[in-house]
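To the wet lab folks,

You asked to see what we're planning to order before we commit. Fair enough. Below is the target structure as tokens, and below that is the sequence we designed to fit it. If anything looks off to you, flag it before the synthesis order goes out.
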């Protein structure tokens, strides 16, 4: 017999023994093993079975199916050994006719199970070595073959693979191979919960998409310590569903489009381009389109500051009624344009009653992009636009309050001294007295002259490049990371030094998370995934990303003080002083970090009701009701957001503002003070007198007078208070409530049950001048 054939027969004979085949499979699955390890796994008795085992091992060595490692004294599989194992598997499949397993793949197709696809996925997605990938795939196939199911699915196969990876301690590979998505039950619940809010199907679509991006960000983008901090409730990363895709807020410069027009070709190659607007109506249409298009590239708020000033040249010589109608249609269209969340496109409009000194000599961009004088030449037109827009905001055609856009009235010393501004100031406070809609920006104090605000409280000042245009326009806010102060107080157990050590740790993670987001957005911009914001004119991008702010915020300051002292923040000088010490410490450390290039970071006190609820719930789970100092109930706890002092605190409105101003000074990134008006008629003159006192006495940056409103769609009337039934017609189902649960008005269908109770407990005021 030829020598080659003899060797082949010896090899086949070596594999014919079940014990020898078992040894080969063990070496394939577990890698190199010693003599003792093999005996132990095979459950052989060293004294009784040693001879038999040595015989089989020697046979495999002679057949060149295994080989010894002299250094480690272990046996390992040879290439021939692997070939034999593959051959025996083929024989097994052919002669035992292993049933075909069908798989529903992620490509929405049904095909036969193929073990090699598991190997490919492990190698491609998780960088698993090929040998290890083949072992895992073989074990997965064996387990799947035991299932009595009609078909397999790609997620099920992935789960089995991940189970095997966990069992083998290969956590790093399992992490990379994790599948993102929602279980069937969660999607069903998501649809039901959104249907209760009267939002459209796009809101469901976005929420499901957000869930995937959230998981991806936590698993694949953020470092493990930051992801764990968010999941455990030490930190709250705002807009996690858009964290790697979009900035948070944006301050538009309308002049960019008045000069260059609106080119949709940058966003969609089939889209048309429009020349600079020629008329007042076309200018408002441009503004509306800018907000609508940009809403797809922004997470939350957009703002058009100096709105009436930049519009003023287009209104020159126009009849008042034409301007009013154009503004009415602008507001109507804005509320009909739905964002990708199912809400109308939300915007803040900054109104000026005087032309600021830094704008007076700025060259006007007028119809067709022509330069025509200075903005100081169009004061009358700017005031007329502001007056008519305030009139439009009182109610829509069915007498319902108009909550969008948010109007920000910028109070400057010059406006208070100018008699021509008095009718405008009165009209703005009449709107506040009746509807509680406007926000008032206090620009009467040092450092506030060039400041711009959005309705969420986000603040932009000329303190970065020290150029008001570069620092406040064509830029925005990257995002906001919220620190859970009460959690740190629970963990510190009353030890002040320990509290500040923990504060340092969490602040470092918050700053690092924002740094990651900044570089991620730069990457998205480079990938042309933000085409509207990255469009260029005269060589410059529209969005000055390098000037965008990053916000570190905090929640539950009042509850932190209660945890330390057993009494609220405003109780005495000691509690208030410690609260101020915490915020001052944060502000100082954030300011130090800002010295790094391209790192515009600010401390903020901006609202987030969802974070206030989520963090309190997690703290309750971790620490128990006896330790947690939350508001609300055991079933629905929440922390103080929006303001430093809870709105239920029984203090005068002046005392409230004297407390809030302390923290506004320390939070240059954003803030908002709220004065809750009583559910009765309010005199606009008294509110105006209060404003003059506020801007002259208190250093609060942004404030608003809030109203609890109830609108009956049946009798088309608006009432004050949190009502369950219409006082006029008795309707229940046609009555809709509105209030500032957080920074902006929300309909009652979005209120948590505990929020309704908290709203009713707010201390309210009837303002009477001194």
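Sequence we intend to order:
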């Amino acid at each position: 017999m030829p020598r080659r054939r003899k060797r082949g027969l010896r090899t086949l004979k070596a594999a014919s023994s079940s014990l020898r085949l078992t040894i080969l499979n063990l070496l394939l699955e577990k890698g190199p093993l010693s003599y003792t390890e093999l005996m132990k796994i095979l459950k052989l008795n060293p004294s009784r079975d040693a001879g038999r085992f040595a015989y089989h091992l020697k046979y495999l060595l002679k057949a060149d199916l295994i080989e010894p490692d002299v250094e480690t004294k272990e046996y390992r599989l040879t290439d021939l050994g692997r070939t034999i194992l593959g051959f025996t598997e083929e024989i097994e499949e052919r002669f035992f006719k292993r049933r075909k397993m069908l798989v529903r793949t992620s490509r929405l197709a049904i095909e036969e199970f193929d073990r090699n696809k598991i190997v490919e996925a492990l190698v491609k997605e998780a960088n698993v070595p090929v040998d290890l990938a083949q072992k895992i795939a073989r074990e997965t196939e064996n387990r799947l073959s035991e299932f009595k199911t009609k078909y397999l699915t790609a997620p099920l196969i992935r789960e089995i693979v991940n189970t095997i990876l966990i069992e083998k301690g290969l956590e790093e590979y399992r992490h990379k191979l994790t599948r993102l998505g929602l279980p069937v039950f969660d999607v069903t619940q998501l649809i039901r919960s959104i249907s209760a809010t009267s939002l459209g199907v796009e809101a469901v679509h976005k929420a499901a998409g957000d869930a995937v991006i959230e998981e991806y960000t936590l698993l694949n983008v953020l470092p493990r310590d930051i992801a764990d901090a968010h999941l455990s409730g030490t930190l709250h990363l705002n807009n996690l569903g858009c964290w790697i895709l979009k900035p948070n807020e944006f301050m538009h410069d309308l002049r960019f489009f008045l000069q260059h027009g609106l080119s949709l070709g940058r966003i969609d190659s089939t889209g048309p381009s429009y020349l600079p607007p020629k008329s007042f109506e076309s200018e408002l249409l441009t503004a509306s389109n800018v907000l609508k298009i940009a809403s797809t590239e922004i997470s939350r708020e957009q703002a058009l500051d100096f709105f009436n000033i930049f519009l003023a040249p287009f209104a020159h010589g126009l009849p008042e009624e034409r301007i009013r109608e154009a503004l009415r249609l602008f507001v109507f269209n804005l509320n009909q344009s739905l964002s990708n969340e199912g809400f109308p496109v939300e915007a803040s409009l900054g109104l000026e009653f005087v032309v600021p000194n830094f704008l007076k000599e700025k060259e006007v961009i007028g119809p067709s992009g022509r330069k025509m004088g200075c903005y100081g030449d169009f004061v009358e037109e700017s005031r007329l636009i502001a007056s008519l827009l305030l009139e439009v905001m009182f109610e829509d055609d069915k007498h319902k309050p108009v909550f969008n856009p948010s109007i920000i009235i910028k109070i400057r010393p010059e406006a208070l001294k100018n008699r021509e501004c008095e009718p405008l100031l009165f009209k703005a406070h009449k709107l506040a007295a009746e509807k509680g809609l406007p926000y008032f920006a206090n620009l009467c104090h040092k450092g506030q002259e060039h400041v711009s605000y959005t309705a969420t409280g986000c603040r932009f000042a000329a303190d970065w490049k020290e150029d008001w245009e570069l620092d406040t326009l064509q830029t925005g806010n990257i995002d906001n990371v919220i620190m859970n102060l009460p959690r740190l107080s629970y963990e510190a157990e009353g030890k002040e030094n320990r509290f500040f050590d923990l504060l340092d740790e969490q602040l470092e993670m918050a700053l690092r998370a924002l740094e990651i987001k900044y570089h991620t957005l730069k990457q998205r911009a480079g990938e042309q995934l933000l085409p509207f914001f990255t469009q260029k004119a005269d060589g410059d991008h529209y969005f000055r990303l390098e000037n965008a702010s990053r916000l570190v915020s905090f929640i539950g300051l009042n509850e932190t003080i209660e945890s330390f002292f057993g009494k609220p923040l405003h109780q005495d000088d000691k509690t208030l002083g410690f609260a101020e010490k915490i915020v001052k410490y944060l502000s100082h450390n954030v300011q130090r970090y800002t010295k790094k290039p391209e790192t515009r970071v600010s401390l903020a006190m901006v609202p987030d009701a969802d974070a206030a609820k989520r963090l309190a719930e997690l703290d309750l789970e971790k620490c128990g009701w006896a330790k947690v100092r939350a508001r609300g109930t055991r079933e629905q706890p929440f922390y103080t957001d929006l303001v430093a002092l809870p709105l239920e605190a029984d203090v005068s409105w002046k005392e409230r503002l004297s407390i809030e101003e302390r923290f506004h000074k320390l939070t240059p990134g954003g803030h908002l003070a709220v004065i809750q008006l009583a559910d009765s008629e309010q005199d606009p003159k008294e509110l105006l007198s209060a404003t003059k006192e506020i801007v002259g006495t208190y250093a609060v940056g942004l404030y608003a007078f809030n109203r609890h409103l109830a609108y009956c769609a049946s009798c088309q009337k608006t009432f004050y208070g949190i009502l369950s039934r219409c006082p006029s017609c008795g309707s229940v189902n046609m009555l809709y409530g509105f209030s500032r649960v957080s920074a902006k008005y929300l309909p009652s269908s979005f209120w948590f049950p505990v929020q309704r109770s908290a709203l009713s407990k707010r201390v309210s005021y009837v303002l009477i001048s001194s």
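Structural context that might help your review: The longest strand covers residues 475-484. The first helix runs from residue 3 to 15.

Thanks,
Computational group
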